[in-house]
Design a protein that fits this description.
Rossmann fold; 290 residues; homotetramer; alpha/beta; oxidoreductase (chains A, B, C, D); 51% helix; N-(1-d-carboxylethyl)-l-norvaline Dehydrogenase, domain 2; 2 domains
């Protein structure tokens, strides 16, 4: 297929590379064009403007936040009026997803993903797709190139964003739960690493507990895999959705405060798992290495 | 080995049966002696008093709460002065575990378990053991008969209780997280069953999410597998441990309120997973079947 | 002074009337011009466009939210380029206050007020003013006409908005505290009216406890003096400020959820004091009259 | 009247002195008898045992916690079987108040007080009394000697304890609200002293906001007027009441965590107002003098 890809950060560059490798005709665009060099070497074409990447079948966007998406869609030389189906992989607000669905010329599919950069490189992301089913069908070969499995959420595009925000909230909820349990254990004389072994060896054998559990045990919050301010941004999008739809979410309130605290006390450069540092500090436990 | 077993509820009866089947010489006691009938038929001996079950190598207790344990240990004809090693499987307070450790005549091992009745029947519990290592070694054949794996937490017996309380807190934390995410999804137009499929199919593939997730999706809170008042009791023990050790646990505060609310609104006979009903009610969603 | 007044709701109409009565030359504008009839009868002039009300010394705005303020300032025939000092009385976001301060032609003063409609009618509001001190000095005669006292918060205009948001948060915090204490008392057999008498008769003799306490005792949430969705809007502005400045505010998180719950369960037309209904419902207490 | 007084701490000694001054025949007892010296000099009699102070019309107890009250009532030479009416001023659990009411020989009145030591010295306490009305009538002259006003809560003695616990919760709720608002203001560039002036000068003119507000503005947490561990004990009694009666109290959960954090981070010797330090620390603000 003839596909454009806009946004070549850690995630986007890996996803675009997999599209190239799968044999698609890929045109890329990034605000800093040098990020495209490696892709161009493997056969991708560099576009001058976002709109240039949206003249084929599909254009995918993978960007940091609402503002970045709005810039490439509605900004000068944006993709707003272009003929390609717009597939949005970014974690954005429900409100922006609705606006994109309502204004897209070529059709709109929301397709946020679960997975960190190594999963993106391996083509092992999970794709959460929603939108008109004919459009999603058309995009399925592309999703197969970047992910291990696609979940279809229905015809209403923003529903996929809601699922993505819910999933990110669940991750932070698990981080908070581990942080509190480890703090209780440690202050009561039980090594937190041992507690994690028991948890993951019994009822909590999911990847999320292993991956984040080790980060928390080691206080390994730098360098950030996913920075705390981005995590706070996502939780604020979830909070806006909760207000919009009338959902009561006290645990969401807690994790937002923990992220604010991590940023205020530990700095902007920590991983979002540093939300776990807040109950440590509040309980009088120093972080390792401090 | 010559072993006594005190407390023949759903969990205890299944554990005692596995000890009999493994060839041990088992003497049982229960406040309502008729609960022992089936075990006696398979070869167990019925004791008249708790102390009579504590004259062998080991006496195990599996009871509902601190008061029940205090009664069989320190009450009339209790096991307090008996020669057997006391292995406590009950979910009890840190304070009582300390008292039992300090006063036991034959030695004391704390060995709470993870697993619901079907796991107990299958001999597939997880045993969390702490105490003098020679004592734990001596009990290992018994743990092998009731469980699939034993985690050793160290020499201080109450440490095992702290791990058990932490684990139960983690379960309630996962229930709260799912309840909030499903409420957000549902109010935003996404079926909660579909959300659960995405979660368990991606990052949250642990048994706890499958088991409790289905209960929450279906609002299947009756009959109770583990009743909400018992869950609240456990969370209150965790809270007492947090005060004792100086741990800050805001999420624990939330789940305790959700359990109080479930009991106040839905009744005492609901499963502890009904903690999930609180954010439903607060968000204006009726439970299924209401 | 020659002063314009934009926004003639319950609060604004009363404030404008006091300006007329104090002898100022008042030009008014409202989206629905019929709201100006009574004022015109007493001597005010009706403007065709917002900008027409901003040609004198000062133009005051008292509107429902950010969007309404943006419309009269930056919209067609807005006051953005007009010569008058812009005094903003509305409860708006820190971000909008900054933008207004940065773009105002005639100078900008933030002057949100504390007080409900009866206080506005009596000219007994509290004015919270911030901005260039010469500008605030110039506006002082106007503040004296609408309020009983002016608090000056400094040179940076948005600081007054931050104080206003903090004050509204404090009101909701007191509502939540009373709601929880009354629920505890009532479920324990103590009449909530009696509890309120003890509280206001001892340590809590402030107006806020008397006024809101009686509303909560009586579950008198309709008609709304200040509607719950507006209260939630204010708490969301406070939340945005907390994120912006890095402040941890768990109690703010709670009151936001209580407001969401009140709206979801009781409806959009309840007073913001209906935040108190959430712990009632969660504790299994029916509201009076239900 | 012939009255005994047990417990001569800061509060109790001042209360007993006012009884002597009002002309009553006062017998005192304290675990450390030297605390009675000043009272004996003014005419009080020193008892050898608690029971010796309970042979007259009334015996009052003012002690630190449940354990201390249990010791003087049910311990050796305790007042349990004595003929005097037992008036309990201590802040104790609902459960203990019920037990005292059920077992008292001479009748039982619960009469906890609001007020700090200076109010006790001035005879200006608020007395919260509950119990059989004939008994309360009999004690009224004594309450008049120690307090400025008596609130009668009804016939069920523990109801007075519930009101006292509710009031202490309200104080901590106000502390938390001020701490969060001041933290938000300070991080946004508004002096917290100025914010307090606005709050107490407008809607929050109650003594509680002035007294605690100044403590919080100055971070004046030492020496403790009422120590944080005692405050945490009271909040834990309120929590036990919430569990017992089925009341949902999320704000109570927060203040308990803040007190745990203050003790863990700042030490056991801080005032309970140091609960305010927790959001400061979490938001990256250092306490004054640190």
């Amino acid at each position: 297929m003839k596909v454009g890809f806009i946004g070549l950060g850690n995630m986007g560059a890996a996803m675009a590379a997999n599209l190239v490798e799968a044999g698609h005709d890929v045109t890329v665009w990034n605000r800093s064009p040098d990020k495209a060099d490696a892709l161009v070497e493997t056969g991708a074409t560099l576009a001058q403007y976002p709109a240039d990447a949206a003249q084929g079948d599909v254009v995918m966007t993978m960007l940091a936040d609402d503002a970045a998406v709005e810039a490439v869609v509605f900004g000068e030389h944006g993709i707003a009026g272009a003929p390609a189906i717009h597939v949005s992989h970014s974690t954005i607000s429900i409100a922006l997803a609705e606006r994109l669905a309502a204004t897209s010329g070529g059709g709109f599919v929301s397709a946020p993903v679960f997975g960190r950069p190594p999963a993106a490189e391996a083509g092992q992301l999970f794709v959460i797709a929603a939108g008109d089913s004919a459009l999603v069908d058309a995009c399925q070969p592309l999703f197969d190139a970047i992910g291990q499995r696609t979940f279809r959420i229905g015809d209403t595009a923003p529903a996929a964003n809601l699922v993505k925000l819910s999933g990110n909230f669940m991750i932070m909820a698990a981080v908070e739960a581990m942080a509190e349990a480890m703090t209780l254990a440690e202050k009561g004389g039980v090594d937190r690493k041992l507690l994690l072994e028991v948890l993951t060896g019994t009822l909590f054998g999911a990847p999320i507990y292993r991956t984040y559990g080790e980060i928390i045990v080691e206080d390994r919050f730098r360098p950030a895999g996913f920075a705390a301010p981005l995590g706070l941004k996502d939780m604020t999008l979830a909070d806006a959705a909760a207000t919009r739809y009338g959902a009561v979410m006290p645990l969401l309130g807690i994790v937002r405060d923990q992220l604010r605290s991590a940023i205020a006390v530990d700095g902007e450069d920590v991983d979002w798992a540093a939300a776990a540092s807040s109950v440590r500090h509040a309980s009088g436990i120093a972080l390792k290495g401090q």
